[in-house]
Amino acid sequence: MPPKNELASRRILSVTEEELSRIVLDIHDGPVQNLFAALSLLTRLQNGISHLSFEQLQSAGVGELIPIVGQVEKLIESSLHEIKFFLGTFRPPEFHRRSLASIVEGLVFQHEEWTGSTVELNISTLPDNIALPIKIALYRILQEALSNGFRHAEVDRQWVKLWGEDEMICLEVVDQGKGFEPPPLEGPAATELEAHIGLRGMRDRVALLDGEFQLASSPGKGTRILVKMPAYV
Fold this sequence. Notes:
With 233 residues, this protein is of the alpha+beta class. The chain has a single domain (4-230), classed as Histidine kinase-like ATPase, C-terminal domain (Heat Shock Protein 90). Helix content is 55%, strand content 16%. The protein has 6 helices and 5 strands. The chain has helices at 4-49, 54-59, 62-88, 100-115, 132-151, 197-208, and strands at 118-123, 157-165, 168-175, 212-217, 223-230. Residues 1-17 have low confidence and may be disordered.
């Protein structure tokens, strides 16, 4: 059996590696997703005006594009704010004081405002005093799922359900978009591709907190994500 100091060193290394992984995931699932959404809006804007002449731009259509520019501005401002926050504490603001329902409602409102899409939100009774790591993990998972639906599935409507089940928190995110063939996320064939970092991030966040992660999707049939996590850790 290794000496006590060696065991302690291993534990410290493991904790440090875990914290670094969480920081990377927070940056990817938060401000990076906002910047990708902003890029999608800019691409839509560019496609909308590329075929117009200067005279056409002046006479019509420009006014309709102004709201998209405003959405992009909000996304970029939010991303810069969150990156600055990560450089300080690596923790999303005020999560320790806010309820999970309030956090999810705020995220859904922001997503709708920034992307112009619609999210049907249904929140049922939740346990009291949900642990902070659970709040952060569910926030990031929902942020990633909503962003993926907007950017990849190209949907303008998603359905989110949040509820308590005994001492578990359940989150379901559904869309009726393009769908895809999910890569393997478990076992020896589990993907490590950079393109799948978002899916791996959701899986890893759930695993770190002893939860369950389910992903169901197929081309042309939309996507369903179901997460179950303990309310207390």
